[in-house]
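Input/output pair, single chain:
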Amino acid sequence: HALERALGVTVTPEIRALRRLLYCGEWIESHVLHMVMLHAPDFLGFPDGITLAKTHGDLVRNALRVKKAGNAMVRLLGGREIHPINVRLGGFYKVPDVDKFRAMVPELTWARDTLCAIVKEMARWNFPDFERDHIYVSLRHPDEYPFNEGRVVSSNGLDIPVDAWDQHFREEHVQHSTALHCGMVGHGPYLVGPLARFNLNADKLRPVALALARDIGLKAPVHNPFKMLLVRGVETVHALDEALGIIAEMR
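Output:
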């Protein structure tokens, strides 16, 4: 986005929709991997996803099938499942035929409905009674749940354009880490990711995802970090439904 803005490149609505479709696929494959292969074993008392599969085979098989639907979308549009190579400034090197997208509709529909059932089952698990309030920071867009565009907002009132980031946040090296540590000027640490997006944008979820959140009693703001598991599920249902919506509008 920064390079396109610097070069004066205008992205067409069609390209923007395809970019969101690519992000939908990435969220699906990434979120489901975290939910079932990384998070679920901790909640259910297993050392890893392989061991979990021995007694919860349907959960793992269904989740991997949902993930596979996300992989297929990224591969179709991005050229490969991980680290897509078909994306370039202003668009894509090649766009597949519409029929190839439409062929994905039955599997995406199954994935959306199946994941709703999985998330409802997960909501019955025992979650530690623990809450911690944070300063939450995410993008916010006036018309949609934010994937990659919008203004930077926070739970303590910040609302700035993306290019004003350096005026409000500071990244620095610390002696004990090779990773940059970032803080909000005058406030210190903050939280990003699913909880932040949900807490600041739940009203922008697609109806099916919003209904799922209501069904499982998930209401913004969520301060229990363990319930990020459920938030990821709601976001994934949103991504699946948005992907179906984008494909339905293709001509």
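The chain has a mean pLDDT of 96. The longest helix spans residues 13-44.
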